[in-house]
Amino acid sequence: MTYSSQTAKNYYSEAEAARILGISVTRLHMILDEHVFNDGSQRPAQVTFQSSDLVLLSFWHRSTANPKVVRMPNPSR
Questions:
Q1: pLDDT surpasses 60 at 52
Q2: Residue 63: its pLDDT value, please?
Q3: How far is CA 30 from CA 6, 26, 33, 68, 69, in A?
Q4: Domain spans, the chain
C-alpha cells in the first residue's frame, strides 16, 4: 500500500479510509465488525483511523479464509 501521492494526516475519517483502501464504507464497516468490534461491543457511530490502522485494514480486506486454519468460535454469536 502506497500513499506517495497523498500528504500524511494524523487521522482519517471512515469515508477517507474507505477511499484510500478502494472499498465502500459498508465494506469497511463489515471489516471492523468482523475483526475489531467482535466481542459484543457495538461499533461507535464515527471511527477515525491512523495510517497504521489503514495497513491492518488493507490486510484484513485482502485476506481470504484459509481452509487449513481453524478459527475459534466467537462466544458472543
A1: yes
A2: 80
A3: 25, 6, 5, 23, 21
A4: 14-62
